[in-house]
Design a protein that fits this description.
mainly alpha; 4 helices; extended
């Protein structure tokens, strides 16, 4: 983000200062809940649980792509893992059915 300048352009557009820091996962949650940082990336269940339990108002942005290439479409004719191993899925990715390959 720093190389492309996209973060600076957004910050300049909205008149804010954005500083990106790398944390260990648990430390980032603790820093967010204790209000030492303004934003944090976390799982959706922790976003619903930890800040709320600590009384921290939060806004959640859900990224809706969870497949990570593990799409699967198996019908009545494809009942076992052997039936779909090595097949090409509907979007053309061969062997994307990780657990069946």
């Amino acid at each position: 983000m720093a190389k492309s300048g996209i973060l600076k352009r957004w910050a300049d557009k909205y008149g804010v200062v954005i500083k990106v820091q790398r944390f260990d996962y648990a430390a980032s949650l603790d820093a967010f809940v204790s209000k030492n940082i303004d934003a944090c990336t976390m799982t959706n269940m922790e976003a619903l649980d930890m800040p709320a339990a600590a009384g921290v108002d939060s806004t959640v942005v859900i990224v809706g792509d969870y497949s990570n290439g593990k799409r699967c479409s198996a019908g009545a004719q494809q009942c076992g893992s052997g039936a779909i191993a090595g097949q090409t899925d509907p979007v053309g990715t061969k062997n994307s059915l990780g657990i069946f390959a």
